[in-house]
Specification:
The complex is a heterotrimer of chains A (172), B (116) and C (93).
Chain A: H1 8-22, H2 27-47, H3 63-92, E1 103-108, H4 114-126, E2 130-136, E3 141-146, H5 152-171
Chain B: H1 9-35, H2 39-42, H3 45-68, H4 76-104
Chain C: H1 2-30, H2 34-59, H3 63-88
Helix pairs in contact in C: 1-2, 2-3
Classes of the chains: A mainly alpha (172), B mainly alpha (116), C mainly alpha (93).
Chain lengths: 172, 116, 93
């Protein structure tokens, strides 16, 4: 089983992707999708990715982690809507919006898991108003560019309290 | 416009609102691209277009075709997933490229490399 | 009645999107630096995919969806390649 389907989650998502692309759940689409999913997993085996954590991706399957993941995705959705509004106000210079001063922030991180860091980078960059710029592996300090610089301390706290803790729960 | 003639109002209203919201956000984002000063400020503007902007339009499309064809049309989810995954990657790649170029030219706009 | 309203809303969305395409186009032409142009080009890809989706709703055909998917796919690859070019001066090493 392990040899036939080394990445069950990836195989399932590939199958789902194929069915969405075909926009059907007919036996033909299912069969071809399954073949493609198996082939895709083979490619990933050949690439030899590092394991996703102490327990691998299978750890995500536990109920507690699944709940944490759903909570995280909900937080990201809320944050995206909120920051879209904030950035739109800055762009349109709505009266009452602060005259935006932008700048770079150095944020020291405690997280070391590469997948967790990648997730953090994607979340920060996908929400308008913050862009992950650089990461210094030796010092474990990341460089962030923010459009609305309140003050440096506050941004460090937002990143660490809001995202880093949740991601560390998930990945470490 | 085939099929739009017998469009019920409860469908027409949310789809129209979602379309207008998405297009409006796209306009806001691209105005930001024109108006903001400096590359590092402008990097934030396309994120508005490619998160909520395209999200609203895709939601409208999903809703419209699902009701019109009386079955679930979900393949717009593919674009949503794809855009959500690729937008941060392109923005990060571009910012890093810009940072690299600015550092090479010793621009004082960006923080220097950490001392070691 | 609701069809007329809907038609106007779709038309308005299309006009807004075309207006939204003009700004990045201006940025592509004006620069000032290469990274600004690439960023604007990436935004153009996304907005044109949105325009195609609205076209699909207007004509009631799902065929435009495939074109929109292709544009987002190719846009990502193109921008990634351009960013790599800006960094290294060549795409394939």
């Amino acid at each position: 089983m392990r040899r036939l389907l080394p990445y069950p989650l990836l195989g399932l998502s590939l199958l789902l992707l194929w069915m969405l692309l075909q926009d059907s759940a007919s036996p033909a689409a299912l069969l071809l999708g399954a073949v493609l999913a198996l082939a895709g997993c083979r490619v990933l085996v050949a690439l030899r990715l590092p394991p996703t954590g102490p327990r691998g991706l299978a750890a995500l399957a536990s109920l507690r982690r699944l709940r944490a993941l759903v909570a995280l995705l909900g937080d990201v959705a809320v944050e995206v809507v909120r920051s879209n509004n904030a950035v739109a106000r800055i762009i349109l210079r709505v009266p009452g919006a602060r005259e935006g001063r932008s700048g770079f922030v150095h944020v020291p991180l405690d997280m070391r898991n590469p997948y967790g860091l990648a997730a953090l980078a994607c979340i920060l960059t996908a929400t308008p108003g913050t862009v992950w710029v650089d990461y210094d592996e030796a010092e474990s300090i990341m460089l962030l560019h923010v459009l609305d610089m309140i003050d440096e301390e506050q941004w460090v706290r937002i990143v660490k309290d809001k995202w880093e803790r949740q991601l560390m729960d998930l990945f470490e | 416009m085939n099929g739009a003639a017998d469009l019920p109002l409860w469908l027409a209203l949310p789809v129209a609102l979602l379309l207008l919201a998405g297009a409006g956000l796209a306009l806001v984002g691209s105005i930001g691209l024109m108006r903001l000063r400096g590359f590092y400020d402008r990097v934030h503007a396309p994120a508005v277009v490619s998160t909520l902007g395209i999200g609203c339009v895709l939601l409208a499309s999903m809703l419209y075709f699902s009701v019109l064809q009386t079955r679930f049309v979900l393949h717009e989810l593919l674009i949503i997933v794809f855009v959500v995954v690729t937008t941060p990657v392109t923005l990060m790649l571009l910012t890093r490229a810009a940072l690299y170029r600015d550092r090479r030219e010793n621009s004082d706009e960006v923080p220097p490399l950490p001392e070691d | 009645m609701s069809a007329t309203l809907f038609g106007w809303a779709v038309l308005a969305a299309q006009i807004l999107l075309v207006a939204a395409m003009a700004c990045p186009l201006w940025r592509v032409l004006r620069g000032p630096r290469a990274q600004d142009r690439v960023l604007a080009l990436d935004t153009l890809y996304i907005i044109s995919a949105m325009l195609l989706l609205v076209f699909g709703i207007r004509t009631g055909s799902t065929h435009y969806f495939e074109a929109a998917l292709l544009i987002t796919l190719l846009g990502f690859v193109a921008t990634a390649a351009l960013a790599k070019f800006l960094m290294r001066g060549e795409v394939i090493e």
